[in-house]
Design goal:
With 449 residues, the protein is an alpha/beta fold. The protein is built from 14 helices and 13 strands. 38% of the residues lie in helices and 15% in strands. The protein starts with 13 loop residues before the first strand and ends with a helix. The structure holds beta-D-fucopyranose.
């Protein structure tokens, strides 16, 4: 385990952890919640690696007080959770379900009572099923529905949530949800999924206005980014890498920061109306960056339907997800954002960063996870290096507080600082929890430089 103390971080740097509703809450039928696309998808045969669903997950809905106590013990200054749209509007439209809002109201008050900033994501992929039945994110109307939902949440929580995040990883929702079908709703449209990008961005822009009307707190979006490395070295490899970079890193960021869509990414141009780009570029206060790994790209094989091919990057240790552990990629990515967007780039917070390992309790009931400690140590040092490079990074959120239900991987991937025994719901902090607790305490004790 790394023993050298972490370098100093600026005073006020936000130390957090992230979760999402469907991955931890369970209680899918409680208090009037309606079905989401993930309930439908998880209950369709063959979709989830271990055949499981989020029906119970970590039962956080009933154990949130215990989980907030774990947050308090960790010493984080912020907690990023997501609000389940189908708890607030079980059918995706109409008035708020007060019992759904009550749950988040209690959670927010409990966090504040422990001096933890509530950071609320409005959409972490759990679209109400009736909206999917009406076209989902392929339908322009879903953008307006999302803003109406944002308004209902902000009306209740707007005085206490400290940072709003509209959407989580619209790229992943588009590419896996509607492009390849690996995620809910399981559509396989490949590049015909472009309207999903545009309608999410439009929904974001409309939601920013709704949030500003109800709350004085800053507003962000959390994008997934992956620095792209061209493998192979031919011109064809380089243009494949550029095509992938436009899709993964720029499609959702160029329009947000006022540049319109990158060349070659707009599928059906009739989807984009004149007034939309100004709405999408409504100023945001923070750019949320979710970073897991870089991506290797080379030219596609003949006859491929895609203009690139993804390829493994050699030379890195790997997580249980087979993702390369590459802290240098985080520094590279932050530098790329800084150089590419210049003054248009708002302050950045790392809204997700973490790793899955096959963590098992030992004979004494402890859960040693030295790889996760090394991962966090490396990525925090990468953030510090990016600060030294001049990038304005204001926070770092670990994915995730708890082992949880990892989408199409079911319960097979453990990302938590805290181990969860799904049979008993027992929570056991791993050694990374103790390491991070001590690292945060040390970082917060140091005087500002
Ligand atoms: C991100 C998701 C999060 C979790 C991590 C591992 O893409 O936002 O919900 O699945 O990956």
């Amino acid at each position: 385990m790394p023993t050298a103390p972490l370098p100093h971080f600026p005073a006020g740097f936000r130390w957090g952890v992230s979760t999402s509703a469907y991955q931890i809450e369970g209680a899918v039928g409680a208090d009037g919640r309606g079905p989401s696309i993930w309930d439908t998808f998880a209950h369709s045969p063959g979709r989830i690696a271990d055949g499981s669903s989020g029906d119970v997950a970590c039962d956080h809905y009933h154990r949130h007080r215990e989980d907030v106590a774990l947050l308090a013990g960790l010493g984080v200054t912020a907690y990023r959770f997501s609000v389940a749209w189908p708890r607030i509007q079980p059918g995706g439209t109409g008035p708020a379900n007060p019992r759904g809002l009550d749950f988040y109201d209690r959670l927010v008050d409990d966090l504040l009572a422990h001096d933890i900033d509530p950071v609320a994501t409005l959409y972490h992929w759990d679209l109400p099923q009736p909206l999917e039945d009406a076209g989902g994110w392929l339908a322009r109307d879903t953008a307006a529905r999302f803003a109406a939902y944002a308004d209902l949440v902000a009306a209740r929580l707007g005085d206490r949530v400290k940072l709003w995040i509209t959407l989580n990883e619209p790229f992943v929702q588009m590419s896996l949800g509607y492009g390849t079908g690996a995620h809910a709703p399981g559509r396989t449209l490949l590049f015909d999924a472009f309207p999903v990008a545009h309608h999410q961005l439009l929904g974001h822009g409309l939601a920013v206005a709704a949030l500003r009307a109800r709350s004085g707190s800053p507003v962000a979006i959390a994008n997934n980014y992956s620095p792209v490395r061209a493998l192979g070295g031919t011109d064809a490899d380089r243009s494949a890498a550029a095509a992938y970079e436009a899709l993964h890193n720029r499609l959702f960021t160029d329009p947000l920061l006022g540049r319109g869509y990158p060349e070659g990414t707009v599928g059906d141009p009739s989807v984009v109306r004149d007034e939309d780009l100004a709405l999408i570029a409504a100023p945001i206060d923070v750019l949320g960056v979710n970073y897991y790994n870089p991506t290797g790209v080379r030219a596609p094989q003949e006859g491929s339907p895609l203009p690139f091919e993804l390829a493994p990057l050699d030379g890195y240790p790997r997580t249980a997800f087979d993702w390369p552990v590459a802290p240098d990629g985080l520094r590279e990515l932050l530098g790329w954002l800084h150089r590419t967007y210049g003054d248009a780039l708002p302050p950045v917070e790392i809204t997700e960063s973490g790793c899955a390992y096959d963590d098992v309790p030992d004979v004494d009931g402890r859960v040693p996870d030295p790889e996760r400690v090394a991962y966090l140590d490396g990525h925090l040092r990468a953030v510090r290096a990016a600060l030294d490079d001049g990038v304005d990074v204001r926070g770092y959120f670990v994915w995730s507080l708890l082992d949880n239900w990892e989408w199409a991987e079911g319960f097979t991937k453990r990302f938590g600082l805290v181990h969860v025994d799904y049979a008993t719901q027992a929570r056991t902090p791993k050694s990374s929890y103790a390491w991070l607790r001590d690292a945060i305490a040390a970082a917060r004790r140091k005087p500002a430089r």
